[in-house]
Amino acid sequence: MKKKKNNEINIKTIWKFFRSEKGKRYSFIVFYFFFFIFLFIFLSLDFTPVKSTKKKDIEVVKEEIQESSLPFVTSQLENKNYDFLYTINCQDKEIYKGKRRENMITLEKDEEQYSYKVQNGKLVGTSKEIPYSIFLDIFSVKQMIKNSKLVSETKLTENLNYLYNYEIKNKELDEFLLQGNITDNKNEIIIKTNSKKEIESIHVDLVNYIEDGKLCNVELKVEEVYE
Hints:
By secondary structure, the chain is of the alpha+beta class.
C-alpha cells in the first residue's frame, strides 16, 4: 500500500494544526479577519423596514405626486383652513371677506353672508350664490390651469416670490362658466406664490370673455393660512 506523504494537507492535518499552540495563535487572526469582514458587510446593509417610514414623509411623497403636473403647490388651499379676500371687478368693484373652515367656505359683504360646501372635490352653494363663485373652488381652478397654456414663470428678486402667467381660450373657460362663449379669444390667469411656491393669490382676467369687452376680473387673495 502506498504511504501518504508527510506534507499532504487534508482536514485532519488542518485540525491538528489549529489545535497546536502555534495554530491557536493563527486561529485568532483568521477569526478576527473574517469577523471584521462580516461586520463591515452587516453595517453596509440597510435593514430599515418600510413600515418605519415616518407618516409625514409619506404625505410629502403623496403631495409631490399630486402636485407634479403643476409648478406650484395647491394643497394648502385644498386641505387647510385659511382667510381670504375675494374681489370681483366688473361693472362695479365688490370685495368679499371670506374664510374656509374644514369643508365650509363662507363670504361676507354688507352684512350678507354666502355659504358653500366642499363636497367630493366640488363646491356646492348652500345659499344665494355670488358671481363667478367657480373661482373659489381650487379644484376647478386647477383644471382650468391644466387646460391653459403657461406663458411665463417669473421669480421676483425682491422677495423670491413667483408669478405664473397662463392663457386660456374662451371655449375652455366656458366649460366651467357655462355662458355659451366658445370663441378662441384668450384670457389671462395669474398665479402668485410665495418663495415656497404656495399660492398667495389667483387673478383671472375676463376682459376677452365678456361680450362687451369691458374690464372684468376676479381675484382670490389669501390672507392667512392655519395649520
